[in-house]
UniProtKB/TrEMBL annotation:
SUPFAM superfamilies cross-referenced by the UniProt entry: LDH C-terminal domain-like, NAD(P)-binding Rossmann-fold domains
CDD domains in the record: MDH_chloroplast-like
Chain ranges of the Lactate/malate dehydrogenase N-terminal domain: 3-141
Top-level lineage group: Bacteria
Catalytic activity: (S)-malate + NAD(+) = oxaloacetate + NADH + H(+)
An example molecular function term from Gene Ontology annotations: L-malate dehydrogenase (NAD+) activity
Family matches, as Pfam families: Ldh_1_C, Ldh_1_N
Gene this protein is translated from: mdh
Protein source organism: Conyzicola nivalis
Alphabetically ordered keywords of this record: NAD, Oxidoreductase, Tricarboxylic acid cycle
Designated name of the protein: Malate dehydrogenase
Residues at which substrate binds: 88, 94, 127, 158
Binding-site residues, NAD(+): 7-13, 101, 108, 125-127
């Protein structure tokens, strides 16, 4: 399996690469070769990470290639984790942020289109993740759009952890939690269908609305406030979970959350990369259909999807789609 990681010398890269190389992503029987894409000024740092990967003597790890050339990095890739992006800096308007990331994700989409393996699966982690995935997919016309996804698994895992903390149920007993919409403060972490030990349970709506939702949606900012830097190990762990479930399949009776290209389900405009409840049987992600959406959920989903539509309009105006 050839796995390309962009932003490999960054903090998520540092937490992610060792998990991949140890077999945590695809299990103990699948050897992995790594392709690390970095900016020219970070190639030395990426080289240092590769030296440490060598020093782990992971039995599954094949060759490691380090490059600043996207065509080289995506050559033959079966899995591409697009982590490197342009973060928002002080005074940056959203339009500037989207333009700066368009300059990264449009060429990377083209490089995936031209070089990746036929079965490539792409996970965009770098923010704004949903719209970056939209840009990459739009620039890869020969790759089915179902192969592009953006990460809301960290939000999903945060929701599991918060519900576990509030109820005392272990995370392993919790199922059917959903993140809808954008990986941003507007996301909607939804417990309407959640189960504990397979059973519906009484849920305090005031806690959901005033505590659970703001805690999950604001967790990234809380981590920055506490650590001084953004979530890294938990983001890497979520990326491992996302790819493992996509390639090996989700557990029977449960689903996970991933941002994928909408087919119009649940009133989410077709073509937007929005988070949904999804399952996989090892092929493409499938949206879980037929869930009842109450008025509160409808409003929250619509608000986050409206933000995605605004982002799409902005990148369309920039000629990035
Ligand atoms: P870092 O700044 O530590 O690392 C980013 C790395 O990407 C740097 O080494 C940089 O040289 C590299 N890079 C930048 N542009 C590149 C390009 N065009 N090609 C290749 N490499 C490039 O950031 P880190 O903490 O690792 O976070 C990476 C991204 O993940 C950020 O956009 C961050 O906002 C996003 N996150 C997304 C999350 C999610 O749930 N979807 C959660 C965690 C994180 O906030």
């Amino acid at each position: 399996m050839i796995i390309t990681v962009t932003g490999a010398a960054g903090q998520i890269g540092y937490a992610l690469l060792f998990r991949i190389a140890s077999g945590a992503m695809f299990g103990p029987d699948i050897p992995v070769s790594l392709r690390l894409l970095e900016l020219p000024q970070a190639l030395d740092a990426a080289e240092g990470v590769a030296m440490e990967l060598d020093d782990c003597a992971f039995p599954l790890l094949g060759d490691i290639e380090i490059t600043d050339d996207a065509d080289v990095a995506f050559e033959g890739a079966n899995v591409a984790l697009l982590v490197g992006s342009r973060p928002r800096t002080a005074g940056m308007e959203r339009g500037d942020l989207l333009a700066a990331n368009g300059a990264i994700f449009a060429p990377q989409g083209r490089a995936i289109n031209d070089n990746a393996a036929d079965d490539v699966r792409v996970l965009v982690v770098g923010n704004p993740a949903n719209t970056n995935a939209l840009i990459a997919s739009a620039n890869a016309p020969d790759v089915p759009s179902a192969r592009f996804s953006a990460m809301t698994r960290l939000d999903h895992n945060r929701a599991l952890a918060q519900l576990s903390g509030a109820t005392g149920a272990p995370v392993s007993a919790i199922s059917r939690v959903t993140i809808w919409g954008n990986h941003s403060a507007t996301q909607y972490p939804d417990l309407s269908n959640a189960r504990i030990e397979g059973e519906r349970f009484e849920i305090d709506r005031t806690w959901v609305e005033q505590d659970f939702i703001p805690t999950v949606a604001g967790r990234g900012a809380a981590i920055i406030a506490a650590r001084g830097v953004s979530s890294a190990a938990s983001a890497a762990s979520a990326a491992v979970d996302h790819l493992r479930d996509w390639v090996l399949g989700t557990p029977v009776g449960d689903w996970t959350s991933a941002a994928i290209v909408s087919d119009g389900s649940y009133g989410v405009a077709a073509g937007l990369v929005s988070s949904f409840p999804v399952t996989s049987d090892g092929g493409d992600w499938q949206i879980v259909e037929g869930l009842e959406i109450d008025e509160f959920s409808r409003g929250r989903i619509d608000a986050s999807v409206a933000e995605l539509a605004e982002e799409r309009a902005a990148v369309e105006a920039l000629g990035l789609l």
